[in-house]
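seq/struct pair 1
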Amino acid sequence: MWRKHLISLILFVAITLIAIGFPHGDDPWFSFLDTTNNQAWQLFVIYRIPELFIAIIAGFALSIAGLLLQTTLNNPLAGPSILGLTAGSHLMVALTIMGSSILGLEILDLGITISATIGALIFGLLILVIATRIRSMVSLLLVGMMLGTFVSAITNIILMKADANSVKAFSIWGMGSLQQVSIDQIPLISLLFLVGIGLAFSVTKPLNALILGEKPAAVLGVKVKQTRWKVIFVVSLLAGLVTAFCGPIGFIGLIVPNLVRMFYKTAQHGHLLLASGLIGSSVMVLCVLLIRIFEPIMVLPINSLTALLGAPIVLFLLLKNIHNA
């Protein structure tokens, strides 16, 4: 098992090193190491470090959030974006931006993060209640997608009443970007991320038991309801954090845990959480590389790129579950 972790780590380090050294324009690889090129160093510190940092955080957080949801709901098609948690964050951030504009208040990073987390938490609780009544994986998936569509419609109605500056700011944020984070925001993001990850690893034993089913887990001493509430809070925190600073990013939390389970072939969540984080971070850094490669031709929004990569995999998983049903 640790050999597979080593492979994942090597893959992550290799992709990250390529992303760090990838040339900008006509500059050579690792141009920031040239002490005579002050501009390259400033570009590296101001833009590249925050971009790679939030890519790693986003991939790690969304993948772990997806794994927690899939185990808790016993549904391999569950994910923060598919089940509407990201849409809930979307709505709350929209209300925060519009409300701040109307009241003439300045929007703080922590305020947006809290709004995104609350939105994800509300929809996470709603999905949890629905999941107790709907056992069909496909039905739960469809309910989550419909909730997401409903919330998107409400968000669009709110935008119709907003001023031009708020609409522009929200539209840019809504396209998703890994370039909205500054070097000064890294400590706050790191703190919230570490809290979420610490809580996630604290529920590994209950999650291992939940795989057997709710009744066997309860017999083993697991407080099922308490574990579910804790998982929803963790998922909301992690998904809300990423949505607040990157905009809505879909599919990562859905596809990565499934790929990890296929590769690792284990039910031990200590290993699955670590592997999901490493591979999720690798996928997001790979997206950064693809964005830079296509930058001379077009600017690719991160959520559009993850959709292009993830939609075929989601379709495959959906057809597979329908076939096995």
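seq/struct pair 2
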Amino acid sequence: MTDNELPLPVQAFPTMRGLGRANLQYLLKMSRTWTEPIVQQPVGQLPWGHITVLLDKLKTRAELDFYAAEAVQHGWSRGVLQHWIASRLHATKGAALTNFDRTLPEGSDAVRELVKDPYHLDFLELDGDAKERDLEDALVARLVTFLTELGVGFAFMGRQYPVVVGGETFRIDLLFYHARLHRYVVFELKTTDARPEHVGKLGFYVAVVDDLVRDDERDDSTIGILLSAGRNEAVVEYALSANNRPLASSTYTGLPPQVRRLLPSEGDLAQVAQDALGEP
């Protein structure tokens, strides 16, 4: 049966509703896409509105199955489903450079799934006239949106999170806890390309959190994510291979160069934290 040969719903099923031409075309497309019993597929567990979004926005069976499974697993609304399709989650999830295969021999697949590359920070909505204070305000005000971009399970623990080693205070850019995987997640932020020394510093922070913050009986190993404006993959891969802590390298999009230059430096952030705490 071709699209032009669809039966008239009123004539074929006079007592049924919702079988207009558009819905019949969706049903026909479904039958051609999922040739096996639909109830055995994740898509069979989704509301009709979700299914029409999938069929309208996606082309390949692999992409359709990916987003259907994610929507079922996480209970996405239709709006959230549309957001993740537009963000190309299928291409970014688990795409970061990592050393997890070596440092997390058991469970590395599950941990890799929570690290994306790139992260989309377009929601900051900053222009070239933004000042440093504007950027700081935007980061704080849009924290919930950033948590959404990170994915399900992340809980925010603090910004410029202080840890004391040998009487010296160090401050972690962003510290999160993943409630489902029971791991702390350290974010080191860079507005330049990732460098080997950045990976080394991140490994240091992960080791400190493991030793001073993590609960040995409850929590699994801490992981670290270096989030930078760009990277030389060969350089980063060497740096990751030389570190014995579970680390990942990701990039971000959404901040033009003129805005990235306005990001506060590590020294600026440290000074802001010291001022807030009244430290000399």
